[in-house]
Amino acid sequence: MPDDIAPSPPADRGYLTEKGFLSWACTLDHKRIGLLYLGTTLLFFLVGGVFALLLRMKLMYPGEELFSNKAYNVFFTLHGIMMIFLFIIPAIPSALGNFLIPLMIGARDVAFPRLNIFSYWIFLAGIIVILASLASPLDTGWTFYTPYSATTGAAVTVLSFGIFLVGMSSILTGLNFIVTIHRLRAPGLTWFRLPLFIWSMYATSIIQVLATPVVGITFLLLAAERIFGVGFFDPAKGGDPLLFQHFFWFYSHPVVYVMILPAMGIVSEILPVFARKPIFGYKGIAYSSLAIAFIGFLVWGHHMFVSGMSDVAGIIFSFLTFFVAVPTGVKVFNWIATLYRGSISLDAPMLYSLTFIFLFIIGGLTGPFLGALATNVHLHDTYFVVAHFHYTMMGGTVIGLFAGLHYWFPKMFGRMYSERRALTAWLLIFFGFNITFFSMFILGVQGMPRRWAEYPERFQPLHIASTAGSWFLALGTVLMFWNLFRSLFRGGPAQPDPWGSKTLEWRTGSPPPTHNFAEIPTVTEWPYGFGKKEKERE
Amino acid sequence: MLNTSSTKAYRTYILVWLALLVLTVVTWLVSYVHLGMLNVTVAMLIASMKALLVALFFMHLRYENRLLWAFAIIPLGFLTLIIGGTLADVLLRD
Ligand SMILES: [Cu+2]
Question: Are A521 and A504 in contact (CB under 8 A)?
Answer without folding.
Answer: yes
